[in-house]
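Dear H.,

Thanks for agreeing to be a second pair of eyes. The structure we're designing against is below in token form, covering all 364 positions.
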């Protein structure tokens, strides 16, 4: 009986410089552009847009959604609009805003958009045009190019790069933070987080040599990390209860401020275990501010619905809401983060990519 092999769509989108390791893996360079913060004039008015792989659309299609009034969090410095998923379950909807490094980045509809101010022409001391050059970097990752479904963590998926983009664009938020990544795969997002954080706990299930692969990738890219950042690679199985976590891991988790996860929604049993895990973390971690989940809706056509649906994504929403309202009240908010931030890595930022934020319902 043949075993079904799956391959990340990412590998067909860009030419990665790869070399074979001889053990079935490849080492690939994933290039990125470092964020350039927007310059301002004497009055503090922005003179241009933040840079990325694509300055015009950031790899995103235009949307027709209407801009919604926002709620300002006094603890945040600047913001980007988010849309609450509470409206999927009741008649009330809530808008939240998310910190970004540049101002005026809220989602706009095509009829509301305003032309960006043209940056002034800069000349060098000889009078020649001074062209701003993007500073680039590269992350080297050992990974597989195809695997069985139960070993997909050995590959790299679009969600990891989307989450990496978000972290890079919000570096002030994550600077010196304590971050936990769930289902880290080969560790790319944790490596990006280590560029800014004080501590990164990189976790996954120990299967197929995955944790050793992560340790190798972390070491391979240690030169990119914040020199003050501590990176820990350890096992965290979604199917294990929080009470059964090792004491050393529990102690580290007490400092965690942000939890991140990318592309961990692909199987209903794993989805249920993942939701139970994040619910436990929301209940047990005293300093936890938010959980960010990047995923891709994968559509299939069903005769039952006579339409294309995203069953794994829909099941995640239903199961999370079931756990969220167990006691007759929603304890947490599930928010859709606006995708209006630049693309720093080379990949196709397709419209089916989603970035979700979960935080306590009492959070402003």
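And this is the sequence the design step returned. I haven't edited it by hand at all.
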């Amino acid at each position: 009986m043949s075993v079904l092999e799956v391959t990340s769509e990412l590998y067909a989108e860009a030419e990665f410089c790869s070399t074979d390791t001889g053990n079935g893996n490849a080492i690939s360079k994933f290039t990125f552009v470092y964020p350039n913060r927007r310059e301002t004039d004497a009055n503090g008015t922005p003179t241009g847009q933040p840079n990325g792989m694509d300055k015009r659309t950031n790899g995103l299609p235009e949307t027709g959604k209407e801009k919604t009034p926002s709620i300002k969090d006094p603890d945040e410095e600047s913001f980007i609009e988010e849309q609450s998923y509470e409206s999927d379950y009741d008649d009330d909807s809530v808008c939240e805003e998310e910190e970004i490094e540049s101002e005026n980045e809220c989602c706009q509809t095509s009829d509301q958009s305003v032309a960006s101010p043209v940056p002034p022409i800069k000349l060098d001391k000889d009078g020649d045009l001074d062209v701003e050059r993007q500073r680039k970097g590269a992350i080297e990752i050992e990974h597989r190019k195809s695997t069985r479904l139960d070993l997909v963590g050995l590959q790299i998926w679009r969600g990891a790069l989307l989450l990496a983009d978000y972290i890079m664009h919000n570096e002030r938020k994550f600077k010196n933070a304590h971050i936990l990544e769930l289902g880290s795969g080969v560790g790319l997002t944790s490596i990006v987080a280590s560029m800014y954080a004080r501590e990164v706990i990189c976790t996954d299930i120990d299967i197929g040599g995955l944790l050793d692969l992560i340790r190798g990738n972390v070491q391979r890219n240690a030169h990119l990390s914040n020199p003050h950042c501590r990176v820990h690679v350890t096992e965290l199985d979604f199917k294990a209860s929080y009470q059964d976590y090792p004491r050393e891991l529990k102690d580290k988790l007490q400092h965690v401020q942000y939890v991140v996860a990318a592309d961990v929604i692909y199987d209903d049993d794993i989805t249920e275990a993942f939701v139970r895990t994040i619910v436990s973390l929301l209940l047990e971690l005293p300093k936890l501010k938010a959980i960010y989940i990047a995923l891709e809706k994968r559509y299939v056509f069903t005769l039952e619905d006579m339409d294309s649906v995203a069953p794994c994504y829909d099941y995640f929403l239903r199961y999370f809401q079931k756990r969220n309202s167990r006691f007759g009240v929603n304890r947490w908010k599930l928010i859709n983060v606006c995708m209006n931030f630049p693309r720093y890595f080379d990949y196709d930022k397709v419209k089916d990519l989603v970035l979700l934020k979960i935080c306590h319902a009492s959070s402003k």
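Two observations from my side: Residues 119 and 159 are 32 Å apart (CA to CA). The first strand starts at residue 5 and ends at 6.

Warmly,
E.
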